[in-house]
Every structure is written in C-alpha cells, then in structure tokens.
Design brief:
81 residues; mainly alpha; 1 helix; rod-shaped
Length: 81
C-alpha cells in the first residue's frame, strides 16, 4: 500500500509558476546583452583613451625635462663650470 501512488495527488512540478509570456524573457535578455556590450565598450574606450592621455602626459613630461636639461647645459656653459 505504501508503494502505490494516489492518482488524486498533484505533481509538485505543476506548482512551479511558469511564464506564459516569453517576450518578457527575450526583452530582459536583450537588455542584459546590450548592457554587457556597453560595459565592454566602455572598458575598451577607457583603456584606449586612458593610454592615449597617459602617453601625452609622458611626452610633455619628457619635453619639460629635456628643456630643463638644455637650460642646465646652457647655464653651465655660460658660467664656465
């Protein structure tokens, strides 16, 4: 008697709420894909433009240092050191 199933029992699976509207699922997935693409694009832009800005800062820093060195050489020549 314990092994027999009661035909009146409702399977547990039928209690799980299922979405009949699959368009909502597609909209959510498309929003997630769009967000993921934009985040990746944002990271790539930050890397590219960030490296561009850093390279320009380094360039101007080197120019400034070379000007200081040149001024130092000229001062040294003028004072006969």
């Amino acid at each position: 008697m314990c092994e027999e199933e009661n035909p009146g029992d409702i399977p547990i699976r039928s209690y799980v709420a299922k979405s009949d509207n699959h368009a909502d699922d597609g909209a959510i997935l498309s929003i997630l894909k769009w967000t993921q693409r934009n985040i990746v694009s944002l990271i790539l832009h930050l890397l590219f433009y960030g490296s561009f800005i850093v390279s320009w800062i380094a360039f101007f820093r080197l120019c400034y240092l070379s000007c200081q060195v040149q001024e130092g050489i000229e001062r040294c020549r003028s004072t006969d050191c």
